[in-house]
Amino acid sequence: MFIIGCTLGVISGYMGKWVDVVLMRLTDTQLSIPVIILAITILSVSRPTPFSVIAVLILAAWPVYARVVRSVALAEREREYVRGAKILGASDLRIMLLMVSPNILPPMAFVAVLDVARMMIFEALFGFLGIGIQPPVPTFGNIIADGYKYLVNSWGIPTLPGFFLIITLISINLMGASLERARNKLFKGIV
Question: Among 70, 86, 104, 128, which is most exposed with the fewest C-beta within 10 angstroms?
């Protein structure tokens, strides 16, 4: 998802014109499909294996990366060093790979950390609905779904996995926020 989204975002933002329009309409189309509908469609037809669940999550996540990278690439293509490289005869591919791509990494690191939490929520939802990775592989969603029938007599069985999922998601979000603060502190004053 990271590679697909970043590649399409850099190409779209750097090339502009009709390439940007086509790639962003493709991204908009993918964004318009709700993740749960996509998951039900794909995972109901195929056997829900770890590979198929990962494929659904990749299909759901790459547009976010493409949008963020496109915005960075749009800003970078107007910089003086890109114009200078064009004047010196550097190809578009070389400029995208060696000059624009390294500048997308800081914002993408923050998005990637937050996306891990989002993917965990979707995977737990798939497991709870029974279309995710099947038992005996333990996932948060499977454990919560299995304990749901004991909710009246033993509320801790489905509640504790949900609590640990929340703690995990909060930890991931705090890690992402710390990463962003460290990046801002590192680049403070650099324009």
Answer: 86
